[in-house]
């Protein structure tokens, strides 16, 4: 996003940046480091996983931090000229990685809104731009930039770097203007027409308008630098403001992520409480049913003559009850007599009964 400034700033002559520019870049680096720390703490404490969207956002923060530090170093040591090709090359690599991270993160978060608004064909074009065309062009722009940093003054390389930087800036401008209009239309339709839109889509739209506006403003600053020329005294501040806008964009996207996480957690909390309430009520009903069944079984066995050994009230009547039970069983079924002996036997007094005394009655063959 700031590459148009970078390419122009160090070509004909070195720029004497104001000391304020270096301080602003260090301030931006500090702000970016705080954002990175907040992101890592959030991932460790709440999510406990480093998924692709977290990795992209983390990479965006790292590159924003690195850009501010390289700008500050170049400003204070070599007046942002090509006298430090290694640092200058690192700066442009960080810019390309940041642009790729930004466009992929923004598309991933906005994919649901894009699919609900546009046709599948337009959605596929957005995906192609965010995941294929954009990253390839952002990487290709490094070739003339690195060559220009190493070979210094080359007219053809300077022109190539300016063209590639301009193409990348136009891609970002188109992408962010389209998404910004889409988000604004989405929120307006939700407010005017009263359509019930998902709460997370509304959060994405609000933060998306803010981040897209920052990127468009950053591109306008690049264009303003080209118009006013490099000899203007405000140029050092424009470079620093561009770096600060990169860091602010990272902060807005981080705020979007945190807001979405706690919003979804808040929405899931009532459902969890309701589920726990239903589960506790079901458990109480099951316990009540088991208690009722247990009471009924105890009453049944205590009053029944078939199992006198279960009754603790009349231990003396067990032998007579067992004899009566055997007589009834012998009259009804010969095979039931032997089984009845086992049922009628007291559980704690097996040795008192002699199974040999119970003979099966003879049947008429």
TrEMBL record:
Keywords: Membrane, Transmembrane, Transmembrane helix. Coiled coil: none annotated. The chain crosses the membrane at residues 24-44, 56-74, 86-107, 128-151, 163-187, 207-228, 234-256. This is G-protein coupled receptors family 3 profile domain-containing protein. It comes from Rhizoclosmatium globosum.
């Amino acid at each position: 996003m700031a590459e148009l400034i970078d390419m122009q700033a160090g070509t004909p002559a070195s720029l004497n940046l104001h000391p304020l520019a270096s301080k602003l870049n260090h301030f931006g680096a500090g702000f970016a480091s705080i954002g990175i720390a907040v992101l890592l703490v959030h991932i460790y404490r709440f999510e406990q996983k480093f998924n692709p969207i977290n990795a992209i956002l983390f990479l965006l923060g790292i590159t924003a931090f690195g850009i501010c530090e390289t700008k500050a170093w170049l400003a204070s040591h070599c007046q942002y000229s090509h006298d430090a090709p290694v640092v200058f090359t690192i700066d442009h690599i960080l810019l390309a990685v940041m642009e790729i991270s930004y466009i992929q993160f923004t598309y991933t978060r906005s994919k649901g809104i894009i699919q609900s608004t546009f046709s599948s064909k337009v959605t596929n074009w957005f995906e192609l731009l965010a995941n294929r065309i954009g990253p390839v062009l952002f990487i290709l722009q490094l070739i003339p930039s690195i060559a220009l940093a190493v070979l210094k003054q080359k007219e053809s390389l300077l022109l190539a770097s300016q063209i590639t930087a301009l193409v990348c800036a136009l891609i970002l401008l188109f992408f962010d203007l389209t998404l910004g209009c889409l988000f604004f239309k989405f929120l307006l339709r939700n407010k005017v027409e009263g359509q019930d839109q998902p709460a997370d889509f509304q959060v994405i739209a609000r933060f998306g308008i803010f981040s897209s506006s920052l990127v468009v403003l950053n591109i306008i600053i690049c264009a303003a630098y080209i118009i006013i020329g490099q000899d203007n005294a405000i140029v050092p501040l424009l470079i620093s403001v561009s770096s600060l806008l990169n860091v602010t964009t990272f902060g807005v996207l981080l705020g979007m992520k945190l807001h979405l996480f706690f919003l979804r957690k808040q929405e899931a909390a009532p459902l969890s409480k309701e589920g726990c309430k239903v589960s506790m009520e079901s458990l109480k009903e099951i316990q009540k049913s088991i208690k009722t069944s247990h009471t009924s079984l105890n009453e049944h066995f205590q009053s029944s003559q078939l199992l006198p050994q279960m009754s603790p009230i009349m231990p003396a009547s067990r032998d007579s009850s067992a004899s009566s039970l055997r007589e009834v069983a012998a009259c009804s079924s010969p095979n039931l007599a032997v089984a009845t002996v086992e049922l009628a036997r007291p559980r704690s007094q097996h040795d008192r009964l002699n199974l040999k005394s119970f003979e099966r009655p003879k049947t008429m063959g």
